Amino acid sequence: MTTVELVRFRVLPEKAEELLAARPDMLRDFEADRSGFINARLVRLPNDEWLDIVEWATPEDYAASREKGPNHPGIARFFAAIDSLVTAEEGALAG
């Protein structure tokens, strides 16, 4: 069953463009380096918060990605634009 990663975070208003500019490189790095990466969608929420919805083939793929952290420049640049983590959850795609 597909594993879904839900990460809610804050980005300072002056870093929002930086976050968006880093996104394509982050996704390319994930596609090249993260086994089981399926898709990611970024949602802009009110009050400088964002939600990243990332799909993984298995829970093991998601766990392995977490272990790697920001190990490529595009991923590191995206993470650097984030001010603070609000929540991080894992679930299974139900439909």
UniProtKB/TrEMBL annotation:
Pfam families hit by this protein: ABM
Q: Where is the ABM domain?
A: 5-67
Q: Which SUPFAM superfamilies does UniProt cross-reference here?
A: Dimeric alpha+beta barrel
Determine the domain of life of the protein's source. Bacteria
InterPro entries from the UniProt entry:
ABM_dom (IPR007138), Dimeric_a/b-barrel (IPR011008)
- Protein name, please? ABM domain-containing protein
Q: What is the species listed in this Swiss-Prot or TrEMBL entry?
A: Kribbella antiqua
Q: What is the lineage of its organism?
A: Bacteria, Bacillati, Actinomycetota, Actinomycetes, Propionibacteriales
